[in-house]
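pasting for ref
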Amino acid sequence: MYRLFVTMTVITIINFASINAKLHSIPLHKTFSVEKFSTETMIRHRSGTATVPLVNWRNIQYYGTIEIGTPPQTFKILFDTGSSDLWIPSKNCNVNQPAC
């Protein structure tokens, strides 16, 4: 008897759900991304190039001197040719390394 009750309940729920099921259409609109625009604009305005003489240290790493900030501060930088990252050394950098 319990099985019959559960089966009938499930069938009723399925029938009720299929009767009330409707296809709803929701319009989609492409929106303007302020975040993307400001990032692209910033990159576009700062995409100038500069030439930096590089020093080849033991065929292991390349380093050069650049200036960053206002007023400019001079840093010796390791140029990582394997990525787009630019690492600025800490003031606690080991002096035995050429880029410090």
